[in-house]
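User: Hey, quick favor. My workstation is busy. Could you predict this chain's structure for me?
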Amino acid sequence: MASAGMHEGSAYDVEERRREAKFGVHYKWIALSNTTIGALMATIDGSILLISLPAIFNGMGINPLVSNNIDLLLWLLLGYTIVSSVTVVTIGRLSDMFGRVRLYNMGFAIFATASTLLYISSYLITGTAGVISLTLLRLLQGLGGGFLFANSAAILTDAFPQNERGKALGFNSIAVVGGTLAGMLIGGVLAGIDWHLIFLISVPVGVIGAIWAYLALHEIATLNRKQKLDVYGNVTFAASLALLLLSLTYGILPYNGSPTGWADPYVQLGFATGIALMVAFVFIELRTENPMLHLKLFRIKAFAAGNMSLLLAGMARGGLQFMLIIWLQGVWLPLHGISFENTPFQAAIAMAPLVLGLLVAAPLFGYLSDKYGSRSFTTAGMLINVVGLVALASMPANFDYMLFAVTIFFIGMGQGMFTPPNTAFVMSSVPPEYRGIASGMRATILNVAFMFSLAIFFSLLILGVSSSLPAALYNGLVAQNVSVNTASQLSIDIPPSAALFAALLGYSPLKALIPQSTMNTIPIRNQEVILSTSFFPNLISAPFMEGMRIVMYAGAAMALLAAIFSAIKTRRPHENDGGLP
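Assistant: No problem, here it is.
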């Protein structure tokens, strides 16, 4: 064993000296800092709208209760992630052929351009046209984010020897996972100042990052320009993933009196077609000479198990942030007298312990995984998440904040324990020439996990809310001297999805749905209660918690499965000398 360790250490030394001689002693730290900024910027912009939508919709003059406007909200929120998810594997494949650094630099340029146009558009166009303009530019920004996502981990893996990758990828993972959380904090703060700044903040970072990447980063990987692009594989994969993600998006909207859209024939057709195209994609990839996605990589047990645990962990946490924001902005903060105008900022502050837990754990356990391997840390991190999610499920709607803060802090720590060791494990398990595509596959899994998690969690939340929301609305309104007929009609007119989106956007639907002539028949003291900040959140709090408990238990089950896959991973992978098994 000792001789093996010495041999392995010597290999690391030779690899490190070769890098230093060609690119300089400090190149690996340049690569780390630049790719971390790129990943941080891309993930911040992926989530920055999540908590600032109330300010944007109010600034654009959009009524969230109009059914078509819910579609606008979903596209503005999720279009960025859909584009990144659909394109990132193709970009990773192209990076292996034409250069990871070259395509990474292109991503910075696209991102900076789209960010500048978003800021300008936010001033020039308002109303529905303004939201459509922002959405289209967010799609372009998502394409730039796809270039950054696909290459950051691969560039780092090339720049660092294997015995330091866990530490390097640990810092990068803070950007990937922590950027999602930081985006919510930044969005909440900027929404309270000026919502236009939400689009401006990434402009200087994008411009500086693009110039720095162009001047400082070098291509280390050996490229294979003789490979051909797998056109049929790219088309079928992109079409399949797009259809599946679009079906998931529209599946959470109401349809024909149903609280969700899973019975919509177009949603069902989208799923069926997406699955059929994915099956066709697998057959194409197994038979083509230059596959876009090397499915044979999954023959590497470490790669397969690591990505499976990554998918499950991503599904456990992806929709969690959205659920917590609805809880805070739509229920808890209004119950504590916070005005809807201030809930984004206050929700951002309330979510800070989640970010802090991640920041504490990610670099520490990335470093420790270099020395002791990843399995124990990734398994423990997911088990901590199981306990944290179960604890959240046991809380009342109007929880004690200190207990909530401690719980989400440990959930953040669990995510920090899992992500860097898992990333290093997966990226070190593949041959060097496949790291671009492996990085793209990993980014796709993260994005798809987020989308699936959001759709699953929101559907479960709606189903849980729908069982008791009509009765809660009816009883609450009748108690405030609203007529039985009016209360009965309103309890039907407010579907669960509309109630949840209204709560998220800080908009009481009762103000719009109760006619003024009806309101005039209600005693003044009851009118004041109905129009108060806390009345609607109080009405939906009990139904909301029924749905939230289902969501938290589902997340805990996914985290437990992620822990199991982490525990059964093979031993710590060593540098692969090329070729596939």
